[in-house]
Amino acid sequence: MKISRALAFVAAGVGLSGFAATTDKVHKVNCQGPTCATTVTIESCKSYKVSTEPIVVAKGNKPVLRWTLVTPGWIFTKEGIDIKKHGTEFEGKAKESGASFKWKNKNTKPGEYKYNISVTDGNQVCTYDPTVVNQ
Fold it and tell me: Which of 55, 82, 102, 128 would bridge with 117, disulfide CB 3.0–4.6 Å?
């Protein structure tokens, strides 16, 4: 009898932990207009801040996403902002200057899109991996 109860508790625990792991994340929309601006501040390769993380694009919004480096002495590399596995969801990647990069978000498929930010101070290249969420 004791073994049955123990197995029931273990089974219930496994079921609950599985439930918690499969719940969807809820993100608050922070990109509703035609352009969504994000600033990037670099302190070192191990310390950076992205003002909008994640960038959460409202359903139906098809904005230009723009990133601006605000730390003197740092610029985007040639790759700059590289959205991973985006298919046809993003287009028009452009380095506007050493400190500004943009992409057009078509926002036709909901999902999370990881992207790399690659910056350099002339001596080192640093890469970070924030997220864009299309609702």
Answer: 128
